[in-house]
């Protein structure tokens, strides 16, 4: 099979993660502890944070990712028991490369809300390109935030990482050949050492949708949607029936080649748009989310039986994103009506 072409850096900072079923069918969530939903706020018609937290709770969604330390959201999360990934946005990376600034950031945005808010990970940047000037500040900011957490005894409870795109992989097919690109390697290798030393996972945004639309001639839609009737790719002892597993395992292979054999992957975004692009429709999106949610409890061929902590993007359609498919990743419409029938039963 041809190389799984990863998506280029997308036009807006967040990308896409979603949840569940078709409008007329129901999605059963199994292994709900492995599933979270990203809460993006790039819209001018979205409900308030308190309503959003209530919507998470009423739908049994126990994990959330937010892309900046929005105070309204953090206050609404107090006492909710929702576990949180909190991002440091790109425009703060340089600031947090200063230890004093990082300590102040942690005090204001983490310590002042803990333990009422259940922080799980701090993500230092989302899909920072190795060629971006801000890439030089990612590891220093990670180190400083970790040290600030350690100073208040939270380093074991809250892990520090960064979220990467599939584009950090140079070779992805077959998955056993997975390796970081020559461009990415100087950026990612010391980060992997940091994660391995501190028992933290690598956050990764995994999008079979973009791999499929980037090479539909060589990648079948059924392989991307978890609907292939049999093995599509045999890689030594490992058999691949879906593209999601192949992408995740190519990243595991790259980690193993870079001193990160013991670093776990948390899928910090994954989803499929309901309109606005090739193969973007409610039917395909429903298939993807149902099958993804049911699949992540099983692990990948390389990590069989190890549930994959996965965050679907996003809670709502966001109308201020770039026109097209980027606006159509919501599980819910801005009026809080579900785009897909959700059954947490």
Instruction: Supply Rg.
Output: 19 Å
Return the structural class. alpha/beta
Helix content: 25-40%
How many helical elements?
A: 10
Taking all residues together, what is the mean pLDDT?
A: 90
- Helix and strand run: EEHEHEHHEHEEEHEHHEEHEHEE
Percent of residues in beta strands: 15-25%
Kindly state the number of beta strands. 14
As laid out across the biggest beta sheet, the strand order is 2-3-4-5-6-9-12-13
Cα-to-Cα separation, first versus last residue: 38 Å
Report on the biggest sheet.
8 strands, parallel, barrel
Characterize the overall form.
Answer: globular
Poorly predicted spans = 1-32
Catalytic activity: Hydrolysis of (1->3)-beta-D-glucosidic linkages in (1->3)-beta-D-glucans
Protein name: glucan endo-1,3-beta-D-glucosidase
Signal peptide: 1-32
GO molecular function: glucan endo-1,3-beta-D-glucosidase activity
Molecular structure report:
This protein is an alpha/beta fold and 345 residues long. Helices cover 29% and strands 18% of the residues. Helix 1 links the parallel strand 2 and strand 3. The N terminus is likely disordered.
Secondary structure blueprint with pairings:
Layout: E1 26-28, E2 35-38, H1 49-58, E3 63-66, H2 71-77, E4 83-88, H3 93-96, H4 99-111, E5 118-126, H5 138-151, E6 159-165, E7 169-171, E8 179-180, H6 185-198, E9 202-205, H7 208-214, H8 221-224, E10 233-235, E11 238-240, H9 243-256, E12 265-270, H10 282-295, E13 310-313, E14 341-343
Parallel strand pairs: 1-14, 2-3, 2-13, 3-4, 4-5, 5-6, 6-9, 9-12, 12-13
Antiparallel strand pairs: 7-8, 10-11
Helix pairs in contact: 4-5
EC number: 3.2.1.39
InterPro entries: GH, Glyco_hydro_17, Glyco_hydro_17_plant
Signal peptide: 1-32
């Amino acid at each position: 099979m041809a190389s799984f072409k990863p998506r280029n850096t997308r036009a807006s900072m967040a990308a896409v993660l979603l949840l569940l079923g078709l409008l007329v069918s129901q999605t059963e969530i199994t292994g709900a502890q492995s599933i979270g939903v990203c809460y993006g706020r790039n819209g001018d018609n979205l409900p308030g944070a308190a309503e959003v937290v209530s919507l998470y709770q009423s739908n049994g969604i126990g994990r959330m990712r937010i892309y900046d330390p929005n105070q309204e959201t953090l206050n609404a999360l107090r006492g909710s028991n929702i576990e949180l990934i909190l991002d440091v946005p790109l425009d703060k990376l340089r600031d947090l490369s200063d230890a004093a600034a990082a300590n102040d950031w942690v005090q204001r945005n983490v310590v002042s809300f803990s333990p009422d808010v259940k922080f799980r990970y701090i993500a230092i940047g989302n899909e920072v390109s190795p060629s971006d000037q801000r890439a030089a500040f990612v590891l220093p900011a990670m180190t400083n935030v970790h040290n600030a957490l350690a100073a208040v005894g939270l380093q074991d409870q809250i892990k520090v990482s960064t979220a990467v795109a599939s584009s950090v992989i140079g070779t992805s097919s077959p998955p056993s050949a997975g390796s970081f690109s020559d461009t990415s390697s100087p950026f990612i290798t010391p980060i992997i050492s940091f994660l391995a030393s501190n028992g933290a996972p690598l956050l990764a945004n995994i999008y079979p949708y973009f791999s499929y639309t980037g090479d539909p001639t060589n990648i079948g839609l059924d392989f991307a949607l978890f609907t292939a009737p049999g093995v599509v790719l045999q890689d030594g002892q490992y058999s691949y029936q879906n593209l999601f597993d192949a992408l995740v395992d190519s990243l595991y292979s790259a980690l193993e080649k870079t001193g990160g054999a013991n670093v776990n992957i948390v899928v910090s975004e994954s989803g499929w748009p309901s309109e606005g692009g090739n193969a973007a429709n409610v039917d395909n999106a429903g298939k993807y989310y149902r099958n993804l949610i049911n699949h992540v409890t099983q692990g990948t061929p390389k990590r069989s039986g190890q549930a994959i902590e996965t965050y679907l993007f996003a809670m709502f359609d966001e109308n201020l994103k770039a026109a097209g498919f980027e606006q159509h990743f919501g599980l819910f419409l801005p009026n809080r009506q579900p785009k897909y029938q959700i059954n947490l039963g």
